């Protein structure tokens, strides 16, 4: 079904009013949702790091165990050779056994050196694990505090937000896609999140550029959609002076942050 211009203007005003309230809610939450998300990501990174370090440390410790086993084997062989050496028949056999024992001593020294290297390596990894765990604990505490803060704000505002989003869905049904797209676009580019404004004291309520009397008359007529020639915002009505005096100036310039962090 076709909506009249007046209905579309009314729907636009409604959507704008809802969006401004949503902006206010999001502004209240501030950077908290992003900060919570960042902390959660960082915690996952730290946990992964600790897991990897533990796995590394595990293989370092396995290396050490393996080397210790080898040394045991070398030592057993040396004990065996010492006994053999007692029963040699000539110098040649004695020297051959001696040579093998010397080689085994060398093997033991090499293995011991590798154990020391692995132990040093293990210490570095253990220190890293301790440091990462400390950092992780700190982030967890931060997260807990930030999450509690956010939960509190969310509890206060989530119901309102859901209600507003439902109302918005309903209100946008009166707008065709093209109009809604351009509304969204103007809002994105607007520092205060306002795409739909009224004329106040003869000026656009968004950019304060003067709106010529003829255009003001067109706006009052509601026969077609009138936009501000200067900023492109949709002008829905011309406020009479008394209303201007009474209207609170809350949303005039302070929406910048809330709009900027929407994305
Ligand atoms: Zn304007």
Automatic annotation (TrEMBL):
Pfam families: Zn_ribbon_9 (PF02591). PANTHER family: PHOSPHOLIPASE C-BETA-2-RELATED, SCAVENGER RECEPTOR CLASS A MEMBER 3. This is C4-type zinc ribbon domain-containing protein. It comes from Flammeovirga aprica JL-4. Residues 36-84, 126-163 form a coiled coil. Keywords: Coiled coil. InterPro entries: Oxidative_Scav/Glycosyltrans, Zf-RING_7. Residues 203-235 form the C4-type zinc ribbon domain. Signal peptide: none annotated. The keyword ATP-binding does not apply.
């Amino acid at each position: 079904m076709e909506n009249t211009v007046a209905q579309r203007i009314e729907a636009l005003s409604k959507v704008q009013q809802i969006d401004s309230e949503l902006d206010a809610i999001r502004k209240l939450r501030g950077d908290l949702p992003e900060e919570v998300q960042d902390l959660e990501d960082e915690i996952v990174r730290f946990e992964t790091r600790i897991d990897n370090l533990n796995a590394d440390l595990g293989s370092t410790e396995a290396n050490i165990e393996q080397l210790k086993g080898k040394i045991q084997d070398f030592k057993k062989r040396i004990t065996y050779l010492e006994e053999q050496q007692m029963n040699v028949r000539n110098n040649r056999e004695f020297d051959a056994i001696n040579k093998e024992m010397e080689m085994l001593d060398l093997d033991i020294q090499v293995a011991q050196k590798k154990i020391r290297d692995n132990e040093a390596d293990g210490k570095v990894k253990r220190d890293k694990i301790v440091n990462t765990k400390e950092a992780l604990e700190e982030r967890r505490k931060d997260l807990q505090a930030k999450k509690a803060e956010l939960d509190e704000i969310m509890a206060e505002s989530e119901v309102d937000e859901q209600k507003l989003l439902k109302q918005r869905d309903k209100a946008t049904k009166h707008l065709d896609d093209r109009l809604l797209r351009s509304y969204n676009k103007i809002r994105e580019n607007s520092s205060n999140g306002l795409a739909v404004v009224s004329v106040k004291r003869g000026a656009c309520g968004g950019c304060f550029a003067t709106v010529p009397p003829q255009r003001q008359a067109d706006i009052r007529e509601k026969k077609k959609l009138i936009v501000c020639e200067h900023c492109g915002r949709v002008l829905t009505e011309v406020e009479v002076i008394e209303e201007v005096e009474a209207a609170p100036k809350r949303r005039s310039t302070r929406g910048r942050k809330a709009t900027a962090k929407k994305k």
